[in-house]
Amino acid sequence: MEERKKNLYSAVQPTNNLTIGNYIGAVQNWVELQDGYNCFFAIANMHAITVRQNPAELRQHTLELLALYIACGINPEKCVLYLQSHVPAHAELCWVLNNYTYVGEMERMTQYKDKSAKHADNINMGLLDYPVLMAADILLYQTEAVPVGRDQRQHLEIARDIAIRFNNAYSPTFAVPEGIYVKGGAKICDILNPAKKMSKSAENPNGSIFMSDDRDTVIRKFKRAVTDSEAEVRYDAENKPGISNLLSIYSVFSGKTIEQAEAEFAGKGYGDFKLAVGEAVADKLTPIQAEQAKLLKDRDYLNGVLKSGAERASYTANKTLAKVYKKIGFIQL
Ligand code: TYM
Q: Do 251 and 153 belong together in one domain?
């Protein structure tokens, strides 16, 4: 008998341009996982508004992200691809779960602390509540697997805690999700400051490689990447963070293992290595960008994907929500 496929859920916020960190830590991994799981991939626009967004840009980034998902190889026929705000159950379950989450737990979240420091003039309730909405996202789909980057681990832990707390208070209602992290790529670092993660909103855009960067920009940025004084291409995350980060990137984009990459550059200088990293990344990004541009011209197709995604996502989400409402004592018509 064929084994039941497990449910898998993940999402990206449509804020700014995605970086190759988002690609390696998340989207690229989803493409590999899509055949083995029942997949739900969202565009987390409700999370995005926890920091101020320009409405026209948010709309544009949403479509760009949808087109990028598909251009990267996510198949909207196999996977449920949808926009978070199209499924009201997310906001509804978030409200319920708020009552099973403690303010102290939320105030301890690293991302909340970082974002409140960065946006000190706008420490809003949404920012504090961000992990509960994320828990609602995941738990609505009876999710067993969540492929994310390392920076989302704390949020995933709290989603598990909330699920277990609710299940214990009533009876088993939610699947308890597990994280899936890419080996070596779960935290891609800024190429100018390898102590920091590569981010969509980095102060210096030369430290991040964006999925929209053209070939010359990619190669130029990698040429300037920070290395060390040793002149040996070897993986040692602790002592050689710059080179190790470039090796992780090269490995994903060239399809070679770290060991194969080390052997390829044995005896060669950092200049050759950095050029090869730039070329491998540009070679992969160019066709993705072309496909994304083509898809963006076909608004009818993209709208169709969103419509079908919203319907399929709502079906599963509403089943879980109905179960929750029943358990907590809400009368349903
Ligand atoms: P977001 O939009 O910040 O990031 C999207 C994904 O990219 C991963 N990521 C990285 N991976 C490796 N190296 C990096 N430098 C790097 N930077 C980002 C993130 O870990 C993430 O997997 N809260 C989520 C979106 C979300 C979500 C969810 C995820 C909303 N609901 C439910 C999973 C399940 C976020 O901010 O992602």
A: no
